[in-house]
Amino acid sequence: MAGKLMHAVQYSSYGGGAAGLKHVEVPVPCAKGDEILLKLEATSLNPVDWKMQKGMLRPFLPRRFPYIPGTDVAGEVVEVGPGVTNFKTGDKVVAILSHLKSTYNDDIKDYGAGTWHMLSTLLHTYEILAYGNLSGGGLAEFAVAKKSLSVARPPEVSAAEGAGLPVAGLTAHQALTQPAGVKLDGSGNQKNILITAASGGVGHYAVQLAKLGNTHVTATCGARNIEFVRNLGADEVLDYKTPDGAALKSPSGKKYDAVIHCATGIPWSTFEPNLSENGKVIDITPDASSFATFVAKKLTFSKKQLVPLLMIPKGENLNYLVNLVREGKLKTVVDSKHALSKVEDAWAKIIDGHATGKIFVGP
Asked: Secretion signal: which residues (predicted)?
């Protein structure tokens, strides 16, 4: 498709919100090496998309301007690079447009390691963030994806159902299966899990995945979404604006073995009295305060821990999630769909932060 142009949406500087997005005509990219070229059918947005535009990940991401945002996509293969043998033209796939080094995932499995190892892990993770390339490109008609981070999309899984999975679904999966130690086949001792902001992108997947394991799930959300979260499978649901909800107290008096923390602005002092003896708070959006607590708990040999989570994508885990959707064991909830020509509406909605499920952009 060399020489052809496509419609894309990009920004050329930090800031600006929805108004900073520009509709442009740019060359269709080519599939090189181990890449595949996709004609996009759906792209899902994530909070990291607007945070990158705002400059919250500078100077690491985006690596250069102008930048086409969007990393979670579903589409049809229209071209394969010379190093690709597992996909062919016409295949339907789900992909995450990221060049992060997925091999590092093996280095962060052991959350029980010593203090100095954990501090080294923290620095190593930041090195990956600094040098990894969230390539973006999802807000366009075509995009290139690495074969290792692309998986087949069966006909039972719609484009939107697939495109919702990469960042949000993989984050929920990693948080539950690694630091929380939940076995999604239902084996092992029962664990009491708290999921904050359970009606959002990561949260709504986390509730469903947790219930595949041997868990009791308490969840927090806004009043309008209580029934929605209960229908996802949560055993107890708290309105976060009520006194008990703000205090994160389980209605049945349970102490949490792990918290999948998808919200912001909750101090450690609120979590600590609600944790079991060896309870962990897995923070999916860690900030400076989170890392300070993480280090303090390690240095004082506290049994209760805060674990900052940075999701490392792996194709095998994405394939696992797609198959769960195919089997009817996991669902992607669509908050809203927007045409690429109206992407500003989707961008404003993801910035607002009150989506129920996932926000999508399509042709």
From this structure: none
Residue 303 C-alpha from the chain's centroid:
27
Question: 17: alpha, beta or left, given left = phi > 0 and alpha = psi -120 to 50?
Answer: left
- Please give the CATH topology (third level) of the domain spanning 5-99+134-164+332-362: Quinone Oxidoreductase; Chain A, domain 1 (3.90.180)
**Separation between Cα atoms, residue 213 and residue 223, nearest integer Å:** 26
CA distance 359 to 163: 10
Are 285 and 293 a contacting pair, CB within 8 Å? no
Shortest CA distance to 258 belongs to which of 240, 274, 247, 246? 274
Q: List, in order, residues 6 or more apart from 142 with CB less than 8 Å away.
A: 1, 6, 28, 29, 37, 38, 39, 40, 78
Q: Which of 200, 168, 182, 309 is nearest to 258 (CA)?
A: 182
The 10s digit of each residue's pLDDT in 181-198 is 999 999 999 999 999 999
Strand ranges (E), 81-200 = 92-96, 142-146, 150-152, 191-195
Strand-pair category, 92-96 with 150-152: antiparallel
Topology of 171-308 in CATH?
A: Rossmann fold (3.40.50)
- Output the pTM of the full model: 0.91
Q: CA 24, CA 140: separation in Å to the nearest integer? A: 9
Residue listed under structure tokens 């996909």: 87
